[in-house]
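Database export, one record per block. Field names are fixed; values are copied verbatim from the stored entry.
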Amino acid sequence: MSRKSSKDLYDAFTRRIRSLDSTRKRVEKLHHNSILGRVAVEQMYEGLFISAFTAFEGFIENLFVGLMVGNHMKQRGVVPRINVGTTIIAREIVLGPGRQYADWLPYDRTLERANLFFRGGRPFTILAEQQRRSLAQCQTIRNVIAHKSRHSVKKFETQVLGNIPLAPRDRRPGGFLRSQYASNPIQTRFEYFATELILAAKYIVAA
């Protein structure tokens, strides 16, 4: 099996995020041309955000499993606690018997696994505090989009919206993600969080 680098996974992840943002721009163009209404646009923002969040989870899982197999992927300073022969076996060990997936976020779940399977939990334990906070906010946004329960809405209001001055419509997930985060250059909050996901991935692979 040819040896891969963690950068290969990072590059694939960034391409996925850029593709989602290209779709976002096309959606905005359709709205500008009066082909899509605002409700449809906000729903698209929610769907694109879920896709970005899921892509980051996939990046974490593939990196974690890949690093457990010494002849499959290498990263400086990363030492697995056990030697695993194939990614199939590594995935079975990490996910557990009979499980097809694992929860990697909230990020504490990744850290728990990392400390079990890697010396010092590296590279996952070196993630900067700013990115950890952003991941926590991304998790909260993801939950309110997916569930819209009273609990998830309350958490979204307190941990994400806070005291940000927003129009009532922009205090809902789709409107919030579409709302302006920065003005020079103009950046939506979707773009901001997508960039934070990329930065988190970059930080991990640069350990």
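Remark 1: Residues 138 and 193 are 7 Å apart (CA to CA).
Remark 2: The helical segments are 6-32, 38-68, 87-95, 107-117, 129-146, 150-161, 173-178, 189-205.
End of record.
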